[in-house]
Amino acid sequence: MPTSNKLTDERLKKIATLPITYDDIPEFSDSDLKGFAPAHPEYIKVTPIKKAISIKFLYFRVFD
Question: What is the C-alpha to C-alpha distance for residues 7 and 16, in angstroms, rounded to an integer?
């Protein structure tokens, strides 16, 4: 059931039958892919903080 007033069941069925084309998507060479840069490079190389922690598990099992 569509939630939009513009998308009726008939319109959704028509959209589902349309073929998907990838003609407008350019093919990238290896040199093109190497030229791409992340939008926020400060989040790419994150070094984890190494800190010693201790965990104590308390688990009691009762046998029948």
Answer: 12
What pLDDT is stored for residue 20 in this prediction? 87
pTM given for the model: 0.31
Q: Determine the straight-line distance between the first and last CA of the chain, rounded to whole angstroms.
A: 52
Is the CB of residue 44 less than 8 Å from the CB of residue 38?
yes
Structure tokens at 35: 């030229």
Residues 6+ apart with CB under 8 A from 47: none
Alpha-carbon distance of 63 to 9, in angstroms, equals: 58
For the stretch 6-27, pLDDT in tens is 788 888 899 899 998 888 888 8
